């Protein structure tokens, strides 16, 4: 509408809804003519998007999570072929990545307005605090992604619309900054142009008081309006707002600021009702379909509430301002661009109930009934968001990227659009090759049937060859969070290194009825039973296929105990250009365990073995020359795992995390000794596998989110983690990064990893363990100093540093490739 207001000939095409204005084009989807493509389209929509994805969602957030498929074959639509500018908005299930890549390759001028972060993520529309969009979506906190849908989707998008990509229009400075730091859109031109609003429709109502009276709202009542498309969406903060209102209502703070007899009333709209409590006056409008009705509701209110936890540039805030209604908003995302403290509303300092309550009380005390604030809100919307204002900015952008264009005949343009008013467009079912990487390709064959297996992936240009190509194969462990796991260094490799990261679940489920054959092949090849997992063999076969067609400089099995037993044996002739990649494997387990996991005779075929600590070296020295053994320690996300606010607590708060190689018996014995010594320790045990014999007073938990686990470290006085053996340990590193003292055992590589920044005692010695804990409990200054040293050591092991060490090894190996 803004473009039309500026006098440009434009059409608005959409896939769902009804045509309303001249120039609206409803893209009517029709099934593909090919039976295999039709089966794949149905499977992608019904069984993947609304089946697998929805069933795998975590409790992190309930905001929409979507894949890009199936889309529409818009490149075959004449309307799109005739356009000088293709301006995209919300394109999930409309513009397939291969279509956009094709437009960009043809030199088409493409502009894309970001209404959320989906164009730069592996599928989430809002990341809920996750920052992997800056580098690579490897382990999604919103999805239990055993099929690698998220990393595959991320790589498909990166290949399709990274620079040179579209011109990005960001409605808020916040989302512009997110795009600039993202791995996908960071190289694109980014312009901040706010969303427009129809200031004639959304305008102050002269009969505002009559509207309020018609709803039973008196002049002394405080009428708040709040709502979203679906009020059950956590991100929109409806529950936080209502909790804030309950607090100020029950403790009398709000009543003290209202005139005598004044009441609080809440007008809600959208799917589902906002939570309430007895005695609260509510006006439930439900789903409001007409803009004029919504404008009435917004105009009648004293304050529009936007309590978002994450948001970009919400329309309801803009529409409220245009109606002259100030806003109460959280200081998140793009909301500070819309709501200016004391001018067009009030801002809560944080997305929390008490912060919202304080901001509401500030508004009532200072601004309720303030005609000047209502006028300022309206003036802001007119000056910054009116259709002519935004239309002029878009016109300037279009002319800048496309140059002046010859004039067209408006009447002929309108007639041409009418011909496409309900245009049939074939569904584009076939994803591009990055999305079809293992094991997502197996999922699609499973859900779409045999016909889909014959489909050729949609073409995308090969990635630029400006650095070595690394194929990284990792194991998908369900207990790894989005910030843990030994593959995290991949997100911090230099930009010139091309990484094809693939994940395989543990076990043989993907091999199905062929699992027994895979085990037989494993025995034939000499692998020990641990390495005879059908999923791992399938993954190696997929890597071989990729290396045979596209080539690679390095193949790195990040879980060397499980993978890379096949490829090092193969002749160079099977790889692209007759060039065998360098074969690298990282080994995580202590030397005593490696004997049952690794056939040592096969190690000699590796070009490099990466160990986590020197304690592993004796297990490899007899089988590999010293120059092929490299020690690169495990790392930590020290940005996320960092010191922070602690919850209040009594007594000595101990924390233990994990199950692998943990000495829980010694932990419990030490706990008993501490109690006998007069201390009051409590132990919080976070583990997916609770040990037998858990004593009274020990709290056992599992399934914590990354954020909840981080808070557990922060709240603890120290991490108590005796081990039977170790090379590296996530829990120790995470606690150290959070600045917490650590008491553990001096086994394996623990001393090397902690480097003096932890108290280590002999293994299996509860008395020494209890004494080390008691000494720290009785000397807070020593405990604080140990916590500071722990944090400094964790910073030295940040994944960025570990990534640099891997990058140096990759560069050296790639230079040796033959």
UniProtKB/TrEMBL annotation:
SUPFAM superfamilies: UDP-Glycosyltransferase/glycogen phosphorylase
InterPro entries: Glyco_trans_4-like_N (IPR028098)
GO molecular function ontology, one term from the record: glycosyltransferase activity
Source taxon at top rank: Bacteria
Domain Glycosyltransferase subfamily 4-like N-terminal: 74-200, 520-639
PANTHER family registered for this protein in UniProt: ALPHA-MALTOSE-1-PHOSPHATE SYNTHASE, GLYCOSYLTRANSFERASE
Full protein name: Glycosyltransferase
């Amino acid at each position: 509408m803004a473009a039309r207001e500026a006098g440009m000939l434009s059409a608005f095409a959409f896939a769902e809804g009804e045509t309303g204005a001249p120039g609206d084009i409803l893209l009517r989807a029709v099934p593909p003519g090919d039976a295999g493509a039709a089966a794949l389209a149905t499977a992608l929509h019904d069984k993947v998007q609304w089946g697998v994805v929805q069933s795998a969602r975590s409790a992190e957030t309930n905001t929409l999570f979507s894949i890009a498929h199936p889309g529409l074959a818009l490149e075959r639509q004449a309307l799109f072929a005739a356009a000088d500018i293709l301006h995209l908005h919300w394109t999930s299930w409309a513009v397939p990545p291969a279509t956009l890549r094709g437009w960009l390759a043809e030199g088409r001028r493409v502009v894309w307005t970001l209404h959320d972060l989906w164009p730069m993520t592996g599928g989430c529309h809002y990341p809920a605090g996750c920052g992997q969009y800056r580098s690579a979506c490897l382990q999604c906190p919103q999805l239990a992604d055993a099929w690698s849908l998220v990393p595959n989707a991320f790589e498909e998008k990166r290949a399709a619309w990274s620079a040179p990509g579209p011109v990005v229009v960001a409605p808020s400075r916040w989302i512009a900054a997110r795009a600039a730091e993202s791995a996908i859109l960071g190289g694109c031109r980014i312009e901040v142009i706010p969303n427009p609003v129809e200031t004639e429709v959304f305008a102050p109502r002269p009969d505002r008081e009559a509207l309020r009276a018609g709803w039973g709202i008196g002049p002394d009542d405080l009428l708040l309006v709040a709502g979203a498309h679906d009020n059950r969406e956590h991100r929109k903060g409806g529950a936080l707002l209502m909790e804030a209102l309950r607090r100020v209502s029950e403790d009398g703070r709000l009543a003290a600021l209202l005139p005598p007899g004044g009441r609080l009333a809440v007008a809600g709209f959208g799917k589902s009702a906002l939570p309430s409590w007895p005695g609260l006056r509510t006006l439930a409008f439900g789903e409001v379909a007409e803009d004029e009705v919504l404008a009435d509701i917004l105009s009648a209110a004293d304050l529009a509430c936007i309590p978002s936890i994450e948001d970009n540039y919400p329309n309801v805030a803009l529409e409220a301002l245009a109606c002259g209604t100030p806003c109460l908003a959280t200081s998140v995302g793009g909301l500070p661009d819309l709501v200016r403290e004391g001018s067009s509303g009030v801002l809560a300092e944080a997305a929390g109930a008490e912060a919202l309550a304080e901001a509401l009380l500030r508004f009532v005390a200072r601004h309720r009934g303030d005609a000047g604030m209502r006028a300022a809100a309206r003036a802001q919307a007119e000056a910054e968001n009116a259709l002519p204002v935004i239309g002029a900015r878009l016109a300037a952008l279009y002319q800048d990227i496309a140059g002046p264009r010859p004039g067209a005949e408006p009447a002929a343009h309108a007639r041409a659009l009418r011909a496409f008013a309900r245009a049939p467009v074939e569904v584009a079912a076939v994803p591009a090759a990055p999305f079809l990487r293992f094991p997502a390709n197996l999922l699609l064959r499973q859900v779409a049937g045999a016909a889909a297996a014959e489909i050729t992936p949609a073409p995308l240009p090969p990635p630029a060859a400006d650095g070595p190509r690394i194929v990284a194969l990792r194991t998908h462990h369900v207990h790894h969070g989005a910030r843990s796991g030994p593959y995290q260094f991949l997100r911090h490799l230099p930009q010139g290194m091309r990484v094809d990261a693939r994940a395989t679940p543990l076990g043989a489920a993907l091999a199905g009825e062929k699992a027994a054959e895979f085990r037989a092949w494993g025995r034939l090849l000499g692998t020990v039973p641990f390495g005879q997992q059908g999923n791992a063999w399938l993954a190696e076969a997929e890597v071989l296929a990729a290396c045979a067609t596209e080539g690679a400089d390095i193949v790195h099995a990040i879980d060397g105990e499980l993978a890379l037993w096949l490829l090092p044996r193969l002749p160079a002739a099977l790889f692209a250009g007759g060039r065998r990649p360098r074969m690298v494997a990282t080994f995580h387990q202590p030397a005593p365990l490696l004997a049952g996991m690794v056939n040592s005779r096969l190690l000699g075929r590796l070009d490099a073995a990466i160990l986590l600590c020197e304690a592993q070296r004796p297990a490899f020295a007899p089988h590999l020359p010293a120059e092929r053994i490299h020690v690169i320690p495990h790392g930590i996300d020290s940005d996320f795992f960092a010191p922070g606010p602690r919850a209040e607590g009594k007594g000595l708060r101990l924390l233990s995390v994990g199950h692998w190689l943990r000495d829980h018996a010694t932990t419990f014995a030490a706990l008993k000794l501490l109690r006998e010594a007069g201390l009051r320790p409590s132990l919080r045990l976070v583990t997916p596998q609770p040990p037998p014999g858990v004593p009274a007073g020990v709290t056992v938990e599992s399934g914590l989110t990354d954020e909840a686990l981080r808070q557990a470290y922060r709240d603890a006085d120290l991490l108590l983690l005796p081990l039977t053996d170790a090379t590296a340990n996530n829990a120790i590193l995470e606690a150290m990064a959070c600045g917490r003292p650590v008491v553990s055992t001096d086994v394996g590589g623990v001393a090397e990893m902690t480097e003096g920044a932890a108290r280590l005692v002999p293994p299996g010695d509860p008395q020494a363990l209890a004494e080390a804990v008691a000494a720290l409990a009785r000397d807070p200054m020593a405990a604080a100093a140990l916590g500071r040293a722990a944090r400094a050591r964790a910073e030295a092991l940040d994944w960025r540093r570990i990534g640099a060490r891997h990058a140096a090894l990759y560069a050296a190996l790639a230079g040796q490739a033959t």
